[in-house]
Amino acid sequence: MISSVRGTVLHVGLNHVVIEVGGVGLQVHTTPATAAECRTGTEARLATTLVVREESLTLYGFPGAEGRALFEQVQTVSGVGPRLALAMLSVHAPEEVRRAISTGDLAALTKVPGIGKKSAERLVLELRDKIMVGVDQPEGAPAATPAAALGAAQEQVREALVGLGWSAKQAEDALGRVAAGPDAPTQVSELLRAALRELGR
């Protein structure tokens, strides 16, 4: 997986940039806002994720890991692919997407082209409990709850599974099955072992 790229910006389009890395120009699909922040001839660094299809390899880039993680997470929902995930981040900032999902704000979600009421309801239903841990807490908020601790552990394990070669969806599905049990492990090492057992079935 290509998790980031850094190099000279060769070209800036409406929703993509070309960045030269080691003498190779990589086309990176981005939101219009991210592309607008890049300047031809200057250096840029983007957090990236590579989407592999039979007929193509497509690189998507984000200003930071937060946007990349959300881009990957929303694609675990049926019917949400890379283009729709990028459209969500083009309309809303990552924290706004997380807040809309965690609070069930269907009006905000349906502002995204391609997302109707049913798709918005499915996003909320499938991701609300998983995404709430990512909503920023105000200063003075209480320490992380067990649910938040589990969410943090799941995120680490998901990244580890993707790094081992499984897709984000496969990793998310395996973690979902593990977490559904009454005695779901909360430690990263135990959670990883349980997820690997699920993937090996």
TrEMBL record:
One of its GO terms (biological process) is DNA recombination. Residues 145-201 are annotated as: Domain III. Residues 72-91, 107-126 form the Helix-hairpin-helix DNA-binding motif class domain. One of its GO terms (cellular component) is cytoplasm. The gene is ruvA. NCBIfam families: ruvA. It comes from Ornithinicoccus hortensis. This is Holliday junction branch migration complex subunit RuvA. InterPro entries: DNA_helicase_Holl-junc_RuvA_I, Hlx-hairpin-Hlx_DNA-bd_motif, NA-bd_OB-fold, RuvA, RuvA_2-like, RuvA_C, RuvA_C_sf. One of its GO terms (molecular function) is four-way junction helicase activity. Keywords: ATP-binding, Cytoplasm, DNA damage, DNA recombination, DNA repair, DNA-binding, Helicase, Hydrolase, Nucleotide-binding. It comes from the Bacteria. Has three domains with a flexible linker between the domains II and III and assumes an 'L' shape. Domain III is highly mobile and contacts RuvB. CDD domains: UBA_RuvA_C (cd14332). It is found in: Cytoplasm. Belongs to the RuvA family. It holds the Pfam family RuvA_C. Homotetramer. Forms an RuvA(8)-RuvB(12)-Holliday junction (HJ) complex. HJ DNA is sandwiched between 2 RuvA tetramers; dsDNA enters through RuvA and exits via RuvB. An RuvB hexamer assembles on each DNA strand where it exits the tetramer. Each RuvB hexamer is contacted by two RuvA subunits (via domain III) on 2 adjacent RuvB subunits; this complex drives branch migration. In the full resolvosome a probable DNA-RuvA(4)-RuvB(12)-RuvC(2) complex forms which resolves the HJ. Its main location: cytoplasm. The RuvA-RuvB-RuvC complex processes Holliday junction (HJ) DNA during genetic recombination and DNA repair, while the RuvA-RuvB complex plays an important role in the rescue of blocked DNA replication forks via replication fork reversal (RFR). RuvA specifically binds to HJ cruciform DNA, conferring on it an open structure. The RuvB hexamer acts as an ATP-dependent pump, pulling dsDNA into and through the RuvAB complex. HJ branch migration allows RuvC to scan DNA until it finds its consensus sequence, where it cleaves and resolves the cruciform DNA.
